[in-house]
Amino acid sequence: MPAIYPDLRDKTVIVTGGASGIGAAIVEAFAAQGARVGVLDLDAEAGTALVDRLAGDGATAQFEPVDLRDIPALRAAIVAVRAALGPIGVLINNAARDDRHPTEEVEPDYFDERMATNFRHQFFASQAVLPDMVALGGGAVVSLSSIVPMVGMGGMPVYSAAKSAVVGLARSLARDYGRHNVRVNVIAPGWIMTERQKTLWLTPEADAMRAERQCLPRRLVPEDIARVAVFLASEDASGITGQTQVVDGGWL
What we know:
Blueprint: E1 12-16, H1 21-32, E2 36-41, H2 44-56, E3 60-65, H3 71-85, E4 88-93, H4 108-136, E5 139-144, H5 148-151, H6 157-177, E6 182-189, H7 195-200, H8 204-213, H9 222-233, E7 244-247
Parallel strand pairs: 1-2, 1-4, 2-3, 4-5, 5-6, 6-7
């Protein structure tokens, strides 16, 4: 059974990209802690279905449909969650898309869109909730990066650059807001078997490569990331900030 952290009960949490995949697992994990969860995602159908299911189980959750590349819309969604659920004590910057793109084909517009999809919203979501955390006397931001830049994986240079930027942002915010008891950490997942990954990239050859490179033989699943996110948001991690936790089954 997953650990229970009493300090997370009734805490307001925002999860970006929370309608499916790793994000949905994180939403469910916080709901199981008794937190009030705001779900931000572009996929209105999946987000609404998730929140309705959680509400049926007695959880408190609110879905805000939003394109995170639209910063005014992102800010408005956070305002709506705050109005409904209270000041934000935890932010999980999860949303991203690992689309492949050869270097020679990248144009400026595509570059900007990839950075907006994979990094820019993390800054502005953090900016929007940090005043809440300061007023509350503390809080936690957990941002998702990737092992992609750590292993030097090719075929997605802009994604890799964006995920590297996540770490730099977190370390800077950890330094600036630590005096307010706000902790900022990063999770760097390895290959997590979401439905998207299984549909787009999982082949027998790729799975054999994964099994060879990981220390652990099993496939990693979204719940592996969700449990770490909940821990880092809890007071059990009160001494941890400015750090990157790799969750890759021993790939690195």
